Amino acid sequence: MSSTFFVFNHVGVFAWTAILLVVYVNVQLTSAIEWKFGEINGLTNITFIGGEQYEIHKYLGIPYAYPPVGERRFMKPEAMEFIESPFDATKFSPQCIQFTNITTTQFTQSEDCLYLNIYKPGRDPDMTSGHAVAI
After folding, report:
1. What phi and psi values does residue 67 have, to the nearest 5 degrees?
2. What does each of the 135 residues of the chain score in pLDDT, given as a tens digit?
3. What are phi and psi of 121, to 5 degrees?
4. What Å distances lie between residue 82 and 36, 58, 70, 72, CA to CA?
5. Is residue 122 a contact partner of residue 54, using CB atoms and an 8 Å limit?
6. Which residues are 65's β-sheet partners?
7. Residues with Cβ < 8 Å from 47, sequence gap 6 or more?
8. CA torsion, ordered 53, 59, 61, 66, to nearest 10 deg
């Protein structure tokens, strides 16, 4: 009885894994938007969930203030006056330095970490008030 349960359990796990792989297909394309500083090039992820297509526009590593290094260290952030156009917003910027007991080499850390990652749904909102944009 226990060997039958064992085989069924592994088959069940395999079946769910296969279903999840089919459901979460992910394609990545480039996208661009215009704003007051010029053009920003980002990414568009196309994901299929339950047979329905969803788009998520991602704009990564957009600076919102001058780096807090040198004379600007420990001062209030100064807003950026301009950024290069077209700006490549397809990669994450360094994360702020964090002191933890866990050593990680997965992310670059820096004092220069005043950047935004903006995620925008590709669909029109369901309500007239719009929809939330994650920053």
Report:
1. -60, 135
2. 444 444 444 545 444 444 444 444 455 667 788 877 788 889 988 888 778 888 888 999 999 899 988 899 889 989 888 788 888 999 998 888 877 666 656 677 888 888 989 888 887 776 777 777 766
3. -65, 145
4. 9, 20, 20, 17
5. yes
6. 79
7. 24, 25, 26, 27, 53, 54, 55, 56
8. -160
In whole angstroms, what is the distance from residue 6 CA to residue 133 CA?
A: 45
Strands 87-88 and 52-63: unpaired
Instruction: Report residue 108 as tokens.
Output: 């670059």
Cis peptide leading into 86, omega within 30 of 0?
yes
Pair of tokens at residue 103: 């050593």
